[in-house]
Amino acid sequence: MSKIEKMSILGVRSFGVEDKDKQVITFFSPLTVLVGPNGAGKTTIIECLKYITSGDFPPGSKGNTFVHDPKDAHETEVRAQIRLQFRDVNGEQVMVQRSMQSTQKGKKTPEFKTLEGVIARVKHGEKVSLSSKCAEIDREMITALGVSKAVLNHVIFCHQEESNWPLSEGKALKQKFDEIFSATRYIKVLETLRQLRLKQANTVKSCQVELRYLKQNKEKAQEIRDLLTAKEAQLAASRESVQRLEGQIEPLENRLMDIDNNLGKVMKLDNDIKALDSRKKQMEEDNRELEEKMEQVFQGSDEQLQEMYQNHQRTVHEKERRLETCQRDTERAYRECQRLNRAKSELLMEQGRLQVQADRQAQNVRNRDAHVKNLAAHLEMEGYERAPFSERQLRSFRQQVTERQDRETEAANQAMRDMQEKEATKQRSIDEIRDKKTGLERTVDLKRDLQQKRQQELRNVRGDLQQLEGSSARLQELEQELAKAERELENAVQASDVDGLKAEVQELQTEKTRLDRAQRRLDQEMETLNAHTKTRTEMDMLKKDKTDKEEQVRKIKSRHNEDLTSLLGHFPNKKQLEDWIHGKNREINQTREKLYKLSKDLASAEQNKSHCSAEIRRKEQQLTSFEEQMFNVCGSQDFQSDLVKLQEDLEKCSKQRGTEFTSGGAEQGPLSALGEACLLA
């Protein structure tokens, strides 16, 4: 069994801080009684025992007030020390020391800190010390004393301010007992077990649901597996059938391929035969036509014929080169035309965009002037009846509206404040009168109930009198009771002062009517103030709208400032801008008319170009045809010399054979046309 023997106190509460002020108290067995007046230090001793054993400071103290005040000691630093000598549960002697320090810096709150503690034991006649840096003194004390920290705090060394905790509420009391009997950890374990059980139950439920779905999936998988096995068997049988059929088809395909190859060769030979026959017939026909057309067969050698052919080829190449040059020039002109069309489209788009911006700007200016005119008419401002307005007029209007708005706002605010004060005063009066009215109505109700009760008693007495008219003695008694009741009724009526109450009620009704009228008047004034507030809100909105419009105008001006300055040389006013826009619109209309005419001319030129291109292609086709005819007729001979020679021969023949003039003229016509086509090419 553990037992406390001695304790020394230094620098705690009112105990001194000098070594000579150290106080030692010896505890006797089985009981030590501390007796002394208030302020003698009895509670401080219990607090020191509690601190040295459990390490907890007194309630409401974090250490600053537990240590001796440095101001009272006239020191900047005060150290406190508590030592305890006791015997542990094994009967061994143990010494414990805890130290604290409080430092005063200026006028700030003293700084408190706990210094290193020491616990010492006597083992085998030797003193063994253990610092708080190496061990937890609180845990060592609990182990040595054999009681828990809760028992030390709440039972053995319970502070006098907390000594009535057994009379606390149920929750606080339960918490104390749980701490004393260490039931908190068991409660936490039970709560953990309950949560774990609930979690496991939820897990089991989810696993059961999952197991049910897994069983369904397993059955479905088994069905799919069986179906897959059957389908695989069918597939294997089908593959065997396919392989067998492929084995039967392969020789047939080889045979068919051979037949197709032979058929292709036969068809190719047949086509070659037909082509050769056709070529033969064509060559025979061409040869026959050439023989019919040629009157003179070329008598030169093959070298001369080859030379004439090469000369003709050079001439053809030169014509082709000139044709390619013309085609390139045509393509270049076409590309230039397309570029001009694109530039025209871009100019039209830019013109449309500028026109839209100009129209929007004009509309914004008209809207602004309309708003200014309407607002000026609403505010009864003179000088703004005719639009458009100049910048000076707009600045003046803006300044007047701002001043007017400030005045209206100040007046509305002042009226609002006055009305709020009046409303508060009236509301207080109404509340007082309503309270007074309620009290008087309650009094009237009580008096009325009392009067009704008396009248009911009177009616009951009169009824009894009517029933007992035959008994004179009873009648006298009843008359006496009636007289007594009438006297009581008169006394009650006199005490009640019904007329006074009625007059007071009438006065209260009149006051209520007057207050109702005042309340209606206040409501009307509130509506007026709300209307002023609405007007002020509208003015704020108009002001905001005006600010937005000014910001938009500023942005538009800043966005188009450089363009307008570059176009006009300076930033124009409204009239100059309108004149410039009007002139540009007139120029745009003229340009549109010119553009329309040019578009018509361009369309006509494109049509002529298409016609000329078609005519050129037709002439080129005729040229090609004539060149082929000329080559077929002349070969590589010089066409001009042959033509001159042929004309001379024709003239001679025309003179000699008049009967063949028509035939000669018919031949000369196509030859002349062929010569002219060659010259044109």
UniProtKB/TrEMBL annotation:
Skewed-composition ranges (Basic and acidic residues): 418-428
Keyword Nucleotide-binding found: yes
Domain of life: Eukaryota
Disordered: annotated segments: 402-428
GO molecular function: ATP binding; ATP hydrolysis activity; double-stranded telomeric DNA binding; G-quadruplex DNA binding; metal ion binding; single-stranded telomeric DNA binding
SUPFAM superfamilies: P-loop containing nucleoside triphosphate hydrolases
Gene3D superfamilies to which the protein is assigned, alphabetical: P-loop containing nucleotide triphosphate hydrolases (3.40.50.300)
An annotated GO BP: double-strand break repair
A single GO cellular-component term on record: chromosome, telomeric region
Record key words, sorted: ATP-binding, Chromosome, Coiled coil, DNA damage, DNA repair, Hydrolase, Magnesium, Meiosis, Metal-binding, Nucleotide-binding, Nucleus, Telomere, Zinc
Short name of any one Pfam family annotated for the protein: AAA_23
Subcellular location per the Swiss-Prot or TrEMBL entry: Chromosome, Telomere; Nucleus
Coiled-coil ranges per UniProt: 211-343, 588-656
Catalytic activity, reaction form: ATP + H2O = ADP + phosphate + H(+)
Cofactor(s) needed by this chain: Zn(2+)
Residue ranges constituting the Rad50/SbcC-type AAA domain according to the UniProt record: 6-250
Family per record: Belongs to the SMC family. RAD50 subfamily.
PANTHER family, per the entry: DNA REPAIR PROTEIN RAD50, RAD50
Cited NCBIfam families: rad50
Protein name: Rad50/SbcC-type AAA domain-containing protein
Organism: Anguilla anguilla (European freshwater eel)
